[in-house]
Amino acid sequence: MIQALKGVRHVTSGKMNLAVSELSIPVPWGEIRGKVWGPDHGRPVLCLHGWADNCGTFNTLLPLLPKDFRYIAVDLAGHGRSSHRPPGVLYAFPSYVMDVRRVVDGM
């Protein structure tokens, strides 16, 4: 990983407005929640957290990124403020892929 980053330069793009709006996408078992940063007209960037995390992981990263994008960070099902799946339903990778599709379709 370090070798891959050797040629990367740090580019300063200015501070992003820290205004954050809440996101809620209805799903059959409740809702997928998240946060949105950036202008409404900005090119959308979907931000997904890791397995034992939530969208709050992006709170300190996003202010450092270019300000002309619209960053959408979601809490995947069962994480953060999103609804848990019904009892007996597995938290499997294909289910998360379908959840991401629901978010994209709901935007």
UniProtKB/TrEMBL annotation:
InterPro entries (UniProt xref):
AB_hydrolase_1, AB_hydrolase_fold, AB_hydrolase_sf
One protein family per Pfam: Abhydrolase_1
Which positions fall inside the AB hydrolase-1 domain?
44-105
Keywords, in A-Z order: Hydrolase
Q: Which domain of life is it from?
A: Eukaryota
Q: Does the keyword Hydrolase apply?
A: yes
Q: Which residues form the signal peptide?
A: none
Similarity section: Belongs to the AB hydrolase superfamily.
Name the UniProt record assigns to this protein: AB hydrolase-1 domain-containing protein
Organism, as annotated: Characodon lateralis
